[in-house]
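Exercise 7b. Backbone tokens:
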């Protein structure tokens, strides 16, 4: 795994307290339902996206930049598919593994610590579908990354991400991004004292500023969020 200490520390500090009760309150207030997501994703949105991936018992899903594993495990529980997650933060992988055990999904899910900006350490073609939720913007050299994702998909496998493959569906979700950014900001502001105790003043204020920097330009259509579904070449 390529070492990026400042990135690892940033996400590690977040995921070390991910299971704290106040963060669950924030997720429920912002998303409506807490499945351990850490982006702009609601459960309804995830269900709509995943319906395009043709997942069922016996199929394998790779979740790139899976975070704490909540969305992937939600999908695995609903569809019966096998789930593999890749994530940079060791703390996030530990939380995902714990959650899989708690949900009794540990026999058909696994989580690996790895830098998704580097080639994935999988053979060619073991996965039926791949998803990357609100994270591809963090990965450098995306043309190479997308080529590597195509490599690990079987022929005809479905990809949920910004993709340079055969695109079968595009959805503009910018308005959703603006709404969720504002809801996350407001939910955190309502619990500021408890969050400041966990994060410290500088981190709390920085994260609040981040939600402003996302929500305001998205509301003005100066920042976009699109979901692409693509298919691997035969």
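Sequence design result:
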């Amino acid at each position: 795994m390529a070492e990026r200490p400042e990135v690892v520390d940033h996400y590690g500090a977040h995921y070390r307290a991910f299971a704290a009760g106040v963060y669950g309150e924030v997720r429920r207030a912002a998303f409506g339902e807490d499945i351990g997501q850490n982006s702009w994703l609601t459960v309804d949105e995830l269900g709509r996206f995943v319906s395009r991936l043709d997942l069922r018992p016996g199929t394998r899903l790779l979740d790139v930049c899976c975070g704490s594993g909540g969305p992937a495990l939600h999908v695995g529980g609903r569809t019966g598919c096998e789930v593999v997650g890749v994530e940079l933060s060791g703390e996030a992988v530990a939380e995902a593994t714990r959650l899989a055990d708690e949900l009794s999904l540990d026999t058909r899910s696994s989580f690996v610590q790895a830098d998704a900006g580097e080639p994935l350490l999988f053979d060619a073609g073991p996965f039926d579908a791949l998803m990357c939720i609100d994270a591809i913007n963090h990965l450098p050299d995306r043309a190479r990354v997308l080529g590597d994702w195509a490599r690990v998909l079987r022929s005809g496998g479905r990809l949920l991400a910004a993709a340079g493959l055969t695109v079968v569906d595009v959805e503009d979700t910018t308005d959703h991004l603006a709404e969720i950014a504002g809801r996350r900001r407001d939910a955190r502001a309502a619990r500021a004292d408890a969050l400041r105790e966990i994060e410290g003043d500088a981190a709390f204020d920085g994260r609040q500023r981040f939600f402003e920097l996302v929500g305001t330009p998205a509301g003005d259509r100066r920042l976009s969020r699109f979901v692409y579904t693509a298919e691997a070449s035969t």
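Instructor comment: The chain has a mean pLDDT of 91. DSSP finds nine helices and seven strands in the chain.
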